[in-house]
Write a structure and sequence with these properties.
This is NADPH-dependent FMN reductase. GO terms for molecular function: FMN binding; oxidoreductase activity. InterPro entries: Flavoprotein-like_sf (IPR029039), FMN_Rdtase-like_dom (IPR005025), NAD(P)H-dep_reductase (IPR050712). By secondary structure, the protein is α/β, with parallel strands linked by helices. The chain has one domain: Rossmann fold, CATH 3.40.50. Helix content is 37%, strand content 20%. It has helices at 19-33, 59-70, 87-94, 98-101, 118-130, 157-172, 183-187; strands at 6-11, 37-42, 73-79, 105-111, 134-142, 149-150, 153-154. Helix 1 crosses helix 6.
Length: 195
């Protein structure tokens, strides 16, 4: 990659004052520390409708998918809801496809009001693999999020450092060479609109 990579951080929370949004800003600090550029794609600003494959052409959808497509790497951030990632992020990802994610490096971040949100991260990893993205082995989580921030900043430096490391690793592997196509990837045709 001749120029520094550009990383898009997609927030899966619609809530004002979202802890996920705050954590993603920390990951973007790591992106900038690594010499790259970063951008927060706040899905609230795109007003994405619930996916309807018969009618998927709104200005917000086109702007969102273009921003994801143009990024060299992506960080997905989500709150954990009922043991998984948010419906808002699922809908945003449903508007995307191979054009946005195939062979793209993706970092994962999950935020939880309780303990470590491992299932949300696992579920996101599965979705990214279905899109033929290259998901970083390193992932970050912010458990007990209600006490993790004070004044918009992380309370504990080790949590902040884990999140910044996610940003740095996303940049480090943004230009990883794609593996040759395998049998499994040839079987992954994605959404065809034939639902």
């Amino acid at each position: 990659m001749a120029t520094p990579p550009h990383v898009a951080a997609i927030t899966g929370s619609l809530r004002e004052g979202s802890h996920t949004r705050r954590a993603l800003r920390g990951a973007l600090t790591g992106v900038e520390d690594a010499g790259a550029t970063g951008e927060l794609l706040d899905i609230v600003e795109y007003d994405l409708p619930v996916l309807n494959t018969d009618d998927d052409s709104t200005e917000g959808v086109e702007a969102f998918t273009a921003a994801v497509r143009e990024a060299d790497a992506v960080i997905l951030g989500t709150p954990m809801y009922h043991g998984s990632y948010s419906g808002a992020l699922k809908n945003a990802l449903d508007h995307c496809g191979f054009d946005e994610f195939e062979n793209k490096t993706v970092g994962l971040l999950a935020v939880s009001g309780g303990s470590f949100p491992i299932t949300a991260l696992d579920h996101l990893r599965s979705v990214c693999r279905a899109l033929n993205a290259w998901v970083l082995p390193y992932q970050a989580a912010v458990p007990r999020s209600h006490s993790a921030f004070e004044g918009g900043e992380f309370v504990e430096e080790d949590t902040a450092e884990r999140v910044r490391t996610l940003g740095r690793r996303t940049v480090q592997y943004a230009d990883i060479e794609p593996d040759p196509a395998c049998f499994e990837s040839e079987q992954n045709v994605g959404a065809t609109g034939d639902d």
